[in-house]
Amino acid sequence: MNNLINEVSRHLNDNVIVQLSKQLGASDPNQVKRASQGISELLLNAISRNANNQQMGGGLMGALQKDHDGGILGDLLGALSGQKQVSNPKTMNGDGIVRHLLGNKQLEAAQVIAQMSGLDIFKSGVLMQLVAPVVMGVVGQKKKSNGLDLGGLASILLGGGQNQNQNQQGTGAAGGALGNIFGKLLDQNNDGNMMDDLLNIGMKILKK
Fold first, then answer.
1. Fewer CB within 10 Å: C terminus or N terminus of the chain?
2. Are 127 and 35 in contact (CB under 8 A)?
3. pTM of the complete model beyond 0.90
4. CB distance 20 to 127 below 8 Å
């Protein structure tokens, strides 16, 4: 998975981070960059769990094939800013992607991202929706270019994850602890609550 994380980071370069910061109204691009890195790891963890589940994996493969072939990566700034029209609206539907991958864990995820980055919780929630199409585009491009079936995709997503965590923990980096937090978050099996609705309301107000 670390190769995919690096690939997402490559596309979320300084120019893209500046664009995302403008869209969020965030004054510190470094906070946006840290938050984007955390979001990328979180969503890739969620995608890997879907790929490793036969029931959910079929839906993931269908979405990658129909809606996320990586085409937006050719002009990511244009796609994010709206200057480039994307023919398939589902490609840029970050809200739908995040809802599908995180379900009722969006609030907890936004809280974790906010705490690790310093970006407030509502901006973290909106940023998840902006970064999600990029993450799906990278995964979809990998699937398409390598002709991967579900098993092959799961292997790439899961491969290297254990070593990465071991390396991070061995060097004392925050990434290992963050990966553990994401794992616990995704393992939770709880129902949605009023706070999820409040988060969605706050995010909608911010996006206006």
1. C
2. yes
3. no
4. yes
- Residue matched to tokens 């969605």: 200
Where along the chain do its domains lie?
A: 2-207
Q: Judge contact between 73 and 146, C-beta under 8 A.
A: no
- The owner of tokens 């879907």 is 50
> What is the helix (H) or strand (E) element at residue 179, kind and residue range?
helix 174-187
C-alpha to C-alpha distances, 168 to 35, 74, 156, 179, nearest whole angstrom: 18, 31, 19, 10
Burial 176-202 (b: 16+ CB within 10 A, else e): bebbebbeebbeeeeeeeeebeebbeb
- Report yes or no: 90 and 67 within 8 Å, Cβ to Cβ: yes
Read off the amino acid at residue 28: D
Residues 15-42 have pLDDT tens digits of: 999 999 999 999 999 999 999 999 999 9
Give the Cα separation of 185 and 208 in Å (integer): 29
Q: What share of the chain is helix, strand, coil (3-state, %, to 5)?
A: 80, 0, 20
Tokens 């690096």 correspond to what residue? 6
Spell out the residues 6+ positions from residue 59 whose beta carbon is closer than 8 angstroms to its own.
Answer: 50, 100
Instruction: List, run by run, the mean pLDDT of 10-residue segments along the chain (208 residues).
Output: 89 96 96 96 92 87 93 94 90 94 89 93 95 96 91 80 38 48 68 52 58
pLDDT at res. 186: 77
**In the prediction, which pLDDT does 10 show?**
96
Q: Helix, strand or coil for residue 93?
A: coil
